[in-house]
Amino acid sequence: MADLVLDHLTIQYGDVKAVDDVSISVASGEFLTLLGPSGCGKSTTLFSIAGLNKATSGSIRMGDKVLFDGATNTFVPPEHRNIGLVFQSYALWPHMTVAENLAFPLKLRRLGKTERDERIAEALKLVEMTRYADRYPYELSGGQQQRVALARALVYRPSLLLLDEPLSNLDAKLRERARVWLRELQERLNVTTIYVTHDQAEALAVSDRIAVMSMGHLRQLGTPKEIYERPADSFVADFIGSSNFLAGRMVQQEASHAVVELKNGTRLRTAPGQARSDGSLVVAIRPERIEIVPELCENSFLAEIGTGTYLGSIYQYHVTIADTELRIQTARELPPGPVHLRIPPEATAVYAEAPGEY
Ligand SMILES: Nc1ncnc2c1ncn2[C@@H]1O[C@H](COP(=O)(O)OP(=O)(O)OP(=O)(O)O)[C@@H](O)[C@H]1O
Ligand SMILES: [Mg+2]
Question: Is the CB–ligand 1 distance for residue 18 below 6 Å?
């Protein structure tokens, strides 16, 4: 069952559409991530679900309850939405202990002392912070404060959990551990969760599905695998992982493949795809999918290995193919000099627009 439905949601500030006609349906218990570059509308979307801003048009439904509907001017205030929210800055109240921080939302909801104490104990146990109940925020590390912020969002058992970059203040190692822990906790509680991040590795690692946004638009909604392996457009291909783009022109389009003429006149067999009305297009290929072959064959090019970068588990090199500089990634170190590179047709995607042309 869909737990949360955003239907043609638009949020406008002056003449800027921070969120532009976004429709997303989130299943019960699902972990959905809003992913996109800074300013693309992630927080604005999240805040409108929480009721911290009011959308311009469209609707938001949670279960069978309408939270917002522009057409009927329905707006449920945030305190009646039963939604847990964790902000990027975890903002615990500094003058309250951990237990007092957790008690606050329960007092607002007029729960009695016995039930408050039970719920606080339960929430602290969930985030493994029981021992710290009487500490003040300044006596905790950043990661511990982050856990308390999460406990505070969970303590009143929200129907929906909204997390806006909740791990952004942790170092890389701690962040990686925290996201595994967060995902396990979310599964255990089976609480529908919307997670905001601009970190694509994090999104790929934790999400059931990812909604990729840019400039207020929803570019693609899919599982991490779908998003990575079949990007809907060149923006997604560029933003998730990395891709090389070769400009060309459509020569032949079949159901199974296409033939593209690159800028310097060479022809490339590719996956079928889209071109503009004048035939122009870009071919996307991921650096790790370009193959090194012993001799020239179909779809292969003579290239010169340029500058290299050691990235820990892989090497990345700059090479020039058909007048275009590309990046390739290999498991082993390559000596400088000529090399034969092959672009496997099945590893390509063909788009009418280059990234940045939207
Ligand atoms: N209250 C507001 N008034 C005017 N413009 C706003 C307001 N809130 C957000 N915006 C604009 O809406 C756009 C989307 O902002 P939003 O905060 O949703 O971005 P974001 O995707 O969360 O980015 P980040 O990753 O940097 O947090 C931005 O261009 C921002 O300047
Ligand atoms: Mg934001």
Answer: yes
Domain limits at 241?
236-351
Spacing, Cα 243 to ligand 1 middle (Å): 27
Helix/strand/coil (H, E, C) string of the chain? CEEEEEEEEEEEECCEEEEEEEEEEEECCCEEEEECCCCCCHHHHHHHHHCCCCCCEEEEEECCEEEEECCCCEECCHHHCCEEEECCCCCCCCCCCHHHHHHHHHHHCCCCHHHHHHHHHHHHHHCCCHHHCCCCHHHCCHHHHHHHHHHHHHCCCCCEEEEECCCCCCCHHHHHHHHHHHHHHHHHHCCEEEEEECCHHHHHHHCCEEEEEECCEEEEEECHHHHHHCCCCHHHHHHCCCCEEEEEEEEEECCCCEEEEECCCCEEEECCCCCCCCCEEEEEECHHHCEEECCCCCCEEEEEEEEEEECCCCEEEEEEECCEEEEEEECCCCCCEEEEEECCHHHEEEECCCCCCC
Ligand with an atom nearest the CA of residue 38: 1
Give me the mean pLDDT over the 125-144 stretch. Answer: 91
148 & 25 share domain:
yes
Q: How far is the CA of 318 from the centre of ligand 1 (A)?
A: 36
Q: Is the CB of 38 under 6 A from ligand 1?
A: yes
Is position 114 within any domain? yes
Please tell me the pTM assigned to this model.
0.89
Q: What is the pLDDT of residues 97-130, one digit of tens each?
A: 999 999 998 998 889 999 999 999 999 988 889 9
Asked whether residue 357 is domain-assigned, the answer is: no
Residue 76 — pLDDT band, cuts 50, 70, 90? very high
Residue 356, domain member (yes or no): no
Ligand 1 atom index nearest CA of 45? 18
Residue 150: pLDDT band (50, 70, 90) is confident
| Surrounding residues of ion ligand 2, Cβ less than 5 A | 43
Number of structural domains in the chain: 2
- Domain membership of residue 113 (yes or no) is yes
